Amino acid sequence: MSEPSADPGLRLDLVSIFPDYFAPLQLSLVGKAIQAGIVSVGVHDLRQWTTDRHRTVDDTPYGGGAGMVMKPEPWGAALDALATAGSTLVVPSPSGERFSQPAAYELADAGHLIFACGRYEGIDARVMAYARERMPVRELSLGDYVLNGGEVASLVMIEAIVRLLPGVIGNPESLTEESHSAGHDRLLEYPVYTKPPSWRGLAVPEVLFSGHHAQIADWRRQQAVELTRRRRPDLLADGP
């Protein structure tokens, strides 16, 4: 994977002890965005910033407890090497704020994102305290569960962010119709259909053949409201 270009639309630096995790970034729309120069990606092995012959990145936690904690020294050196005046540090963490579509839009405008992929019991908290003196820090969680490390979560966030950049999605209007998108009234997306009109005894709703755009829009909104009511009623607390 190439190092960041001098002036990409969005620069991503990914730091991990398992850099091969990020090979999927070369696929699909994200890969095309990289090839087109819309996104520039640098993948870095945290161990290159260690100083001992064993390339140690973790140690036992102060105060006792299970597991190991990632040491601050390699992370501090990594941030010193990668951070610029316009950087934002993204730290996937089960104790972070919930990642959301609004957060994806905010990060898509950031210019330069550094993803710090923790492992074990997490990264020494002083790393985030140090980083906050130099740049915005976003500790973000995908949901109420725990992963083995931050790599998978970073891939999810990167896909959600990159697809919002101009030139990545062929039809930009499709972004406004998706679940959780800005201006979507916090509704889940309505069900979608394609050819054939009947498949294994299941028919496409007749209204979609009507050619009556207002009726179709009303039907889609009703479907979105009902789907949201069944699956995510919390989104309707202040909505329709």
Radius of gyration: 21 Å
Q: In the CATH hierarchy, what is the superfamily of the largest domain?
A: SPOUT methyltransferase, trefoil knot domain
Helix and strand composition category: alpha/beta
Low-confidence stretches: 1-7
Secondary-structure element pattern, one letter each? EHEEEHEHEHEHHEEH
E-strand count? 9
Ends apart, CA distance between termini = 46 Å
> How much helix, percentage-wise, in residues?
25-40%
Write structural notes for this entry:
With 240 residues, this protein is an alpha/beta fold. It folds into two domains: 10-163, Alpha/beta knot, CATH 3.40.1280.10; 178-236, Trp Operon Repressor, Chain A. Helices cover 29% and strands 18% of the residues. The chain is built from seven helices and nine strands; from the N terminus they run βαβββαβαβαβααββα. It has helices spanning 28-35, 72-82, 101-108, 125-132, 151-162, 173-176, 213-231, and strands at 10-16, 39-45, 58-59, 69-70, 87-98, 112-116, 137-141, 198-199, 202-203. The strands form three sheets. Strands 2-1-6-5-7 form a five-stranded parallel β-sheet, with helices on both faces.
